Amino acid sequence: MASALRSSLLRHIQVPVSRTLILNGSNMKAVRSMSSHGDDHLDKEVVINRVLDIVKSFPKVDPSKVSPDVHFQKDLGLDSLDNVEIVMAIEEEFKLEIPDKEADKIDSCTLAIEYVYNHPMAS
Amino acid sequence: MFYSRAQSNRLKVQRQNEEKMTSLPARSEVLSLFRSLLRTSREFSDYNMRKYVKRRTIDAFRHNRNLSDPAAVAAAFADGKSQLGMAKRQAVLYSFYAPRAKNVMEINRP
Lengths: 123, 110
What we know:
The complex is a heterodimer.
Chain A: H1 2-12, E1 21-23, E2 26-28, H2 44-56, H3 72-75, H4 80-94, H5 100-105, H6 109-118
Antiparallel strand pairs in A: 1-2
Helix pairs in contact in A: 2-4, 2-6
Chain B: H1 5-23, H2 27-42, H3 47-63, H4 70-96
């Protein structure tokens, strides 16, 4: 009785389904539900620009010296504390949590860009 | 067991050196403490506290960056560790009384 009622009710209930989901401004036809990342991976160009912007906006850095292959301590005259600060700023910008071991290795723009680009959760 | 005076002196010096070695923090430990403090600063719900803890951390590490006396280094490191503990507790406390409105500095102006 109850099951018959339920099935007859369910037949009449309709939920509108949105066919397209707009992700990052791009129309994606096939939505992989339950997949939080992977499809909206960052472009290398975008990563480079955003990393360079962070480094340039650092108070002690001369923006004209900044290029994608610049070394923080050798080329920009920063110390290890500045290095940590920059890596933390990158973490914040891309909403990442970089473990200490990895963060210690990042000492140039090249490595920072590489790390962020290869990180699946970077956004 | 009995030691001669020279022997016991040597042992004493050795022990002192070991103590010095264990109490003197490694470079990586200092940077890790710095990073932990900066991470904790982000956890504050209050804008002013977030900025203050960050600023205070950076200032203190800059202030002490040229310390060379091992005892002073160890003391500064121990102090930093206790400050980290305090900052973590305070971040939790502040979260109970999180401001209901954003600080004016947090509002992005076009």
